[in-house]
Amino acid sequence: MTPTHLHNIATPGGDNSFRRVLRLIALAAILLRIAILLFAEVRPAMFDFPDSHRYVRVARNIAAGRGPIDDASMRSGTDPLYPLMLSAAPLVGINNETGIMRFGRICNSALSVASILLLAGIGRRLFGDRVALVAAAILAVDPILNFFNALVLTESLYITLLLAAYYSILRISDIDADKTSHATRPAAWALLAGACAGLGTLSRSTNLFLPLLLAPFVPWAYSRVRTATGIGRFVRHGDTFLIAVLVMLAPTLIRNYGLYHEIVPTRVGGGASLLEALGTWADGAPGMDRIQYPPVHDALDEYQRDREYREIALSWATDHPKETLQLAFVKLMRTWSIEINAADYTSPLLRSICWLSVAPIFALAAVGVWMTRNRPAILALLLAPALYFTLIHMVFVGSVRYRLPAMPFLFVLAAVAIDALIDRRRGTVR
């Protein structure tokens, strides 16, 4: 199967059936997420992650009016959007850490259901109803992503924003039946796509350069709309998308400039993260506690300290090219490992779940890549997050966690393969 056009979600044919099946998938997803939430209440230690406590601490500071600070010595060390979401809990009287984490898990679960609907919209526009529903069903039941929904981490929020950006880019190609709003609708969708991409950077700073990869797909989607208006030309070049990204980053840029008198578009901490990944103590795995921090002057602020750490890490990489390349390969293997790397999650049961759920997706996605080879723009769009985060985490530490934003797009490619298998099977039967 090699479809040759974008599918419009508003196409009337089969719409009621599509929506009915999608509602059933969403219902199943909700029930699964309720189950994992209840399991997290019974086994909280299994869902305790060090970063979660930092997000709760920052959320309390936001709720108290102190801003997105870790403490007085780290005023911009955490991506602010996820703690901002969590800060709603203290504002409604949920002040203890357990309650805030419970609130975070519920928000994660709601966001993950929204992600299923967004992925269905993406799949439908690119490949049609059946691929959309298969991809949505895979996302609904995927055990690793379901597990991460119960961790008070940024993954669920970030994935939802990334999918929303993709969905909005594809909506640029929509054409009204009465053809009266061609000039404004593409611009509005481009703005929304850029806003979602910018907010994604505020939830995960490693997203910073991904919008630059996505920007060319705005004119690609816009090429579906035949109009020569001035605003159309504006959208066609992707400017609207990138402006919206910058608008979302502007408050953080302004705040950080006020703190450090430097252009800092995201959180401070990239230097320490590089030091975690590059040094004699580095093994490719997360481990900030293993870093042997060099002495720095007491008068330096957190930005200046972090800059020192970055320079030391890059200097080590320059002096040790062989070790740096070896570490890059180790990080690659960790990020795309079928099994979860952490020692606490290597029981026979968990390893079996990983092999039964991850390995088939990787194999089917590879088939989907092959089947989509004649549609290079769509293939590049779907593989962009996987390639981007692979490169990022061949520099920084590697973990299964860091590939999760790429997985929904691999689910679409896997669904392409499953769709073809269904067609082949039906053809054989007939």
Describe the structure in your own words.
Among the domains are: 154-263, no CATH class; 269-430, no CATH class. The chain has helices spanning 15-42, 50-63, 81-86, 88-91, 97-127, 129-141, 143-149, 155-171, 185-203, 210-214, 217-222, 230-236, 239-260, 270-277, 302-319, 321-335, 348-371, 376-395, 407-429. 67% of the residues lie in helices and 0% in strands. The longest helix has 31 residues, at 97-127. The relative contact order is 0.10. Helix 8 (155-171) runs antiparallel to helix 9 (185-203). By secondary structure, it is mainly α.
Architecture blueprint of SSEs:
Elements lengths: L14 H28 L7 H14 L17 H6 L1 H4 L5 H31 L1 H13 L1 H7 L5 H17 L13 H19 L6 H5 L2 H6 L7 H7 L2 H22 L9 H8 L24 H18 L1 H15 L12 H24 L4 H20 L11 H23 L1
Helix pairs in contact: 1-5, 1-6, 5-6, 5-8, 6-19, 8-9, 9-13, 14-15, 16-18, 17-19, 18-19
Q: How would you summarize what this structure contains?
A:
The chain has 19 helices and no strands. The protein has 430 residues and is mainly α.
Q: Which band does the percent of strand residues land in?
A: under 5%
Helix content: 55-70%
- The mean pLDDT is 91
User: What characteristic shape results from the CA principal axes?
Assistant: globular
Give a quick account of the main beta sheet: strands, pairing sense, barrel closure: none
The total beta strand count reads: 0
Strand pairing plus helix content: what structural class?
mainly alpha
Poorly predicted residue ranges = 1-13, 177-181
Q: Count the helices. How many?
A: 19
SSE pattern: HHHHHHHHHHHHHHHHHHH
The radius of gyration over CA amounts to: 22 Å
